Amino acid sequence: MGFEAIALGGYAMGAHLATSEPLLTLGDVAAQVRAVTLVTDLPVMVDAGAGWGEPLHVMHTVRTLEKAGAASVHVEDQIFPKRAHYHKGVERVISVDEMVAKVKAAVQARSDPDFVIVARTDAMRTDGYQAGIERARAYMAAGADMIMLFPNTEHETRRAPGDLPGVPLIYVNSEGNRAGRGIYSSAELEGWGWRVVYDAITVINVTARGVREALVRLRRDGSTGLDQAEMIEVRQFVEDVIGLGDLYLIEAATVEQDETPKAGK
């Protein structure tokens, strides 16, 4: 589709497993990272939440996800264990010193110097814009490669890159959020000085909408009402993505080579 990188957000990974992000284990996340990196060469940035604990746990998290194939992780300055109330916009941030220790631990743990450590702060919601800016500076000084910020308003979103010169900033577009956080185009954000646009939830949202609409029609009308020519194209797209054609070639050259198809099989 032309994208340069993939993001695995915590909300999306939790929804994929029909649970909440705070209930995900490191093993759950590592398994999803391994599944995705098996089928793409694009770099994958992974939501590592609060790192599953203290600096020691953050080190283990970074090592585990790097081995699973991630190219980057972001660790946030929220409490651990993370609470479901986070999804309602109720943030609980730890102290600057605690988070600085986590950032340093993450940097120390990576084996590849190109593995990107992102420090995320939610302090703009809890303590105001300036607190978020100060935390961003502290986390960069601790060794973070990039900073993920959550400004409260469009004014703050426009202002932040200017207040953090030289700091690569990530903006998270979260479609459907009920906290009033702005959704902006990549062109707008680039023009304001943001370096990366992280789309956290679109794939989950549009998948859920499509499944719900199709199942409502199936239950109500007895059929999905989908255009079959379009479904042939979509199904072929799915098979191309999962590499089914390559599997056919391998079988044709091995186990299917001397098999004679039988009628009805």
Summarize the structure.
By secondary structure, the chain is of the alpha/beta class.
Textual characterization of the structure:
- Helix content is about 50%, strand content about 10%.
- Helix 2 packs parallel to helix 3 and helix 3 (about 55-70) packs parallel to helix 4 (about 95-110).
- It has two domains: about 5-205, TIM Barrel (Alpha-Beta Barrel), CATH 3.20.20; about 225-255.
- The chain has helices at about 10-15, 25-35, 55-70, 95-110, 125, 130-140, 155-165, 185-190, 200-220, 230-240, 245-255, and strands at about 5-10, 45, 70-75, 115-120, 145-150, 170-175, 195-200.
- It has a seven-stranded parallel beta sheet with strand order 1-2-3-4-5-6-7.
- It is globular, with a radius of gyration of 22 Å.
- It is an alpha/beta fold and about 260 residues long.
- Helix 3 links the parallel strand 2 and strand 3.
- The protein is built from eleven helices and seven strands.
SSE ordering: EHHEHEHEHHEHEHEHHH
The fraction of residues assigned to DSSP E strands is 5-15%
CATH topology descriptor of the largest domain: TIM Barrel
Number of strands: 7
**Number of individual domains:** 2
Low-confidence sequence ranges: none
**What's the CATH class label of the largest domain?**
Alpha Beta
**Subunit organisation of the chains:** single chain
Whole-Å distance between the termini? Answer: 36 Å
Radius of gyration: 22 Å
- Derived structural class: alpha/beta
CATH homology superfamily of the largest domain: Phosphoenolpyruvate-binding domains
Q: Determine the fraction of residues in helical runs and give it as a percent range.
A: 40-55%
Q: Which of globular, elongated, flat, extended, rod-shaped describes the shape?
A: globular
- Order of strands across the main sheet: 1-2-3-4-5-6-7
Average pLDDT, rounded to a whole number, is 94
CATH architecture type of the largest domain: Alpha-Beta Barrel
Instruction: Give a short account of the largest sheet.
Output: 7 strands, parallel
Count of helical stretches: 11
